[in-house]
Write a structure and sequence with these properties.
23% strand, homotetramer, five-stranded antiparallel β-sheet, Chorismate synthase, AroC fold, globular, 9 helices, alpha+beta, 18 strands
């Protein structure tokens, strides 16, 4: 339940226990921490103010039990948590014997047996990502002081895609625009189309996947460890820990597989004494090390597996087919709520890389 | 330079030092090791018998210095190496000041300065993957005894793609067919088209990327660690350590982002008392745990960055533009040689997962 | 701030922050946890009911925030803490510039500078050992179910020593007897002499050291890892983390250095089919592995460094001599309160060893 | 088989395999390495030139396979080994069923069964310490350039003890004097008495224990990690990995347990602007951090367990008593050969601490 090297986060609690939270270690003593910002990022992840999200409503008030005093890290482990308030176990009882298609139920039963509490997803629940948001939001000020900024946004939902505009957009603009609507897409028109698609899926008792994109600006060149901790390795390790992520690519990503070297290589040039590249098909990473150009990654998020439609499953005890209708409260599309998780967890990983390299 | 938990591999040496190799720890005492198989996999990775590969020719004879006696692991660390024979440093001298576009040169210079020996790529060289092949091939027999088989093959090169045939193909067939031609594609016709594409790229002084696919059969359900070591996280961590990989997806992967839940969820059924799924869009992994269905992953490999065409670069010392023609010996497409690396390193990661879970 | 492998404990908080506590990871889901026992061990460590201890009085009520429900571990990290109530910062202000002899002040100032809050010892305070008691007491029931019992007791205080009686005493007797008096010595007469010695030291504004002994029964033979985690290595690593410990020995320990092999070797014999040794000069450990005989260790605890007598120190800022009288509230002898810390932390380390070896 | 954090050493091979060695990771690229010095320390550990040692004679020629070129570390893992030449398996066959008193045989059989090869001690052999000598000797020049010097010497053998002379002796003198005789004691007269004691023990088919002392000068104040890697914790962890060590103390050590605080605290004073202490009962360590005074540790080494005298053992298969006469080639006292092991391994641990703290 622990991630990171110089900086680390340990996730605590579970979806339907008394709380979820995170223990963050390694923040230098005296580092500034803006707890209001952390709370605002928790609010952004929370379904409470969302029309398109699960009906489970949690206030998610941040509690800090150790490690922060007067807006500064003390150097000791930072113990944080939010309480679970709106816990209802009933809807999950049938699932002990009948695994939901597309969900962790079946392998989790094989591994831990029928006594495992999978109410609300247990440790597989998206609710565990509360700790990832906290960990990343806690290092936000520290990174900003070093000139590093991160933004994640919704690139596509189901068939609805947003293409970059012709003119370049700054990270700061992207941060503002993606916070201006509920789906987290910087473009209001595309956001509207995406919202419509989600509503339609919900009406049909179905769900949608999508793509989250993340960019990080201001990381100095040379950060990373060729074997075995290149920047792509550690970021993808982090990303695939987020429930429902099934693909990760950097820069040109899978498009690179169809390119020629002469198309793909980013030509170097000098701008105000700095080495830069004219394109950024490398996604800011060469040989596993940062190049100084923005880090760019995209995450494929699968459609929510808990859908209202009847599906084929089996009874694990009787070894026979069962038709299953999943109850409980679920998001018809998890992508918008994944956006703050990806943004903050990316910040955390980048902060750990910079701490390892002595940049923090 | 170390990867793994219960089983681990540490890479040693460098591209243009005296040797490259691997130290493998954690293999249970008495585990069978077929050194002939390890040598045959090294031969498969080697450019020596390839028409389409770099002109650097290395015999790559496996030497074992500790940890294997009479075809069995002794329980001590296994120290292996192959010597570097065909080392030529001259072609790389210019590159100390002029970084190759698309290559690790620039960030590596920033990180370690101009004294770093990047001849032949140094620790960034594809030659470091010799150790990954050794580590994975060493656990091949151990896995086979547990009913686990791995195959990697070339799914596409540049624009040339191979689509699965209508009838299902066994892992064993895929292993044989993909070893039957130089590009590592199971289908001879597709292989021929890919070979032609590579030859054309070489004639043009250019290079091509492609996609490697890997499948693992026989892994029991329930293997993996939800936070923070899901199977996808650890495999992708491993894959992005292989030079030139820019994207990784599992099962439906990026296609999942365009699907509805009712399309994407794999329905369960019972076959001879075993729980199985009718489709495998999950790629054998749900909630970060194996499902018992085949693990399926795809890796996007970018085109070789060292190309013969003249490119735009800069002089790091003079901070001015330079037109660069890369010399040295390079593969016009690294995909075919990445196939045995992906296959064997996948086996190693799977073996580590199984050892952690007490299955070995 | 983290110790352990399969089981781990992370210490949180600090002496004069809002709380101290521990995060315990790796306890198997469903493991029994007796929180009343944990509280009773915290009470034993606490100065509140002690006549011979510091005047700082803390209620030390155990709070559990995650990981235990209905007397069972849930498998998630266990987040525990006790609040700091009786915090007074004033007495420590002078010490920012004038380090106390025998205390961590000086090297801590060099390392972290004058802004480090060393009130009440900060992270160097004996109060941090609250977390070690919690971690060990939490695994008490789990170990007892496996037939493993641990006891620590006071072997000597200053010049007052307790010699083993001629007849063997059971672990259970030792546990009861050492809890029957305030100094933690199994023999009431020796305990009285030790108590008198402590009172005399306090009257003189001085302090005393002593020796804590610990025994563990019921650990099966073969537990441990020759290189580099022999049982002695990991236990001593743990013990030297307890403030004021300056020596650790196992079995005959330093006496072994004066023996001949024929005196020191423990002869084997068979008792009811079990292999045992007639003596136990090995302290239950050979080649770093347990032998099945009781593990026996002794810890040398130095006299409390904070004494009322005037001492020679220096002003760090003015680089000149200063005569120092240490204020604040301190134990004249820390040995009695170290006893529950050693006992419980030993249990924790043994539990980790057994978990690593698959015995839990 | 791995020790260290920023710097690490992995031991390879085994006593009666084809080689023993060490893989050292983390040495900064460009660090000076004097391979002649490493060889000379291997010679010092070797029994080849010793009259009082085992008859097993090994040339112990250092071979370096990776990581050092032209007297400098390249930054890659350093792979070293020495071949096992004088291997004789026969004498150990009986021991598969009859464990030697005082030796790892019994718990090792329980753990790994009768197939484990314990010839010559296997991985429990003192021969594994070859790798510890290599690892420490490799960092010798790096430490010397930082003003850090280490010496270990024989403090006592059986009843024969050496007391410090009235006048202070420099580390450099101690290094020379302890290398001037075979027992490793700085005083020639004491060395003669120790030598006589060893010879007498050998004539009687018996063995002797003793105490090794080690000192490190030049480590800056503030090195170490309070929880859980204080300097004493990590050094003792290392020391108890050396076969036959049963006790470790720092500074006044077990004597501190009998002292009053006013006797034990080292008074501070200023010397040429530097903070120093008049005595060094802390052994150079307060609160787990270095003070800038010399680090002083003592290790209790038990008498060699393999003795020629007949001893009581048991047959593991038949569960009945057996009278055992141990054959094979053994040292009557391991202390003199432990001296270079302790000295070099101490250097390695100190180098790792300094690397962690950014001092290297």
């Amino acid at each position: 339940m622990r991630f990171g090297t110089t900086l680390s986060v340990t996730l605590t609690g579970s979806s339907h226990g008394t709380s979820v939270g995170a223990v963050i270690e390694g923040l230098p003593s005296g580092a500034p921490v803006d707890l209001d910002y952390v709370q605002s990022e928790l609010d952004r992840r929370s379904p409470s103010h969302r029309k398109l999200a699960t009906m489970r409503k949690e206030p998610d008030r941040l509690l800090v039990r150790s490690g922060i005093e007067n807006g500064r890290a003390t150097g000791e482990p930072i113990v944080t948590l939010v309480e679970n308030v709106d816990v209802r176990r009933a809807p999950y009882d049938e699932l002990v014997d009948v695994p939901r298609p597309g969900h962790a139920d079946y392998p989790a039963r094989v591994r831990w047996g029928s006594s495992l509490d999978l109410s609300g997803g247990g440790i597989f629940s998206g609710r565990m990502t509360v700790g990832l948001v906290i960990a990343g939001a806690i290092v936000h000020d520290l990174l900003r002081n070093k000139g590093v900024g991160t933004v994640a946004f919704t690139r596509s939902i189901g068939p609805e895609n947003w293409e970059d505009p012709a003119t370049e957009v700054t990270i700061e603009d992207l941060r503002q625009q993606s916070r201006a609507n509920e789906v987290g897409c910087p473009d209001p028109n595309a956001a509207l189309r995406m919202q419509t698609a989600i509503e339609e899926a919900r009406r049909n008792g179905d769900s949608l996947g999508g793509i989250v994109e993340v960019r990080v600006e201001g990381v100095p060149p040379g950060v990373g460890e060729p074997f075995f901790d290149p920047v792509e390795s550690v970021l993808s390790h982090a990303y695939f820990s987020i429930p429902a992520v099934k693909g990760v690519e950097f820069g040109a990503g899978f498009q690179a597989a169809r390119m020629r070297g002469s198309e793909h290589n980013d030509p170097f040039y000098i701008e105000r004494g700095e080495v830069r590249t004219r394109s950024n098909r490398a996604g800011g990473i060469l040989g596993g090390l940062t190049t100084g150009m923005p880090i760019v990654a995209r995450l494929a998020v699968k459609p929510t597996s808990s859908i209202a439609k009847e599906q084929d499953s089996v009874s694990l005890s009787r070894r026979e087919p069962v038709r299953l209708v999943v109850k409980g409260r679920h998001d018809p599309c998890i992508v918008p709520r994944a956006v703050p998780v990806v943004e903050n967890f990316t910040s955390f990983v980048v902060a750990d890389f910079m701490a390892r390299g002595g940049y923090l």
